[in-house]
Amino acid sequence: MKRLIWDTIKVFILFIACTSLFFFGLRMLSAEYDNHHRYDPPEGPSVKVFNSEQTLIDRLDLFFRLGE
């Protein structure tokens, strides 16, 4: 009976250690990506993707042609 209790305690301690390692690893990753600025203006030879000179008719025509 003592052996069963000791084995259960070892599994519980291993579970707590692995869970803590996973939790703190996720917190470190989260802290790393919180400092990452995704919406900085692009640097270098960037190309403007959106053409704002399209009329509503042109946009509807493209919408219906592509079937979206």
From TrEMBL:
<protein>
    <submittedName>
        <fullName>DUF4227 domain-containing protein</fullName>
    </submittedName>
</protein>
<dbReference type="Pfam" id="PF14004">
    <property type="entry name" value="DUF4227"/>
</dbReference>
<dbReference type="InterPro" id="IPR025321">
    <property type="entry name" value="DUF4227"/>
</dbReference>
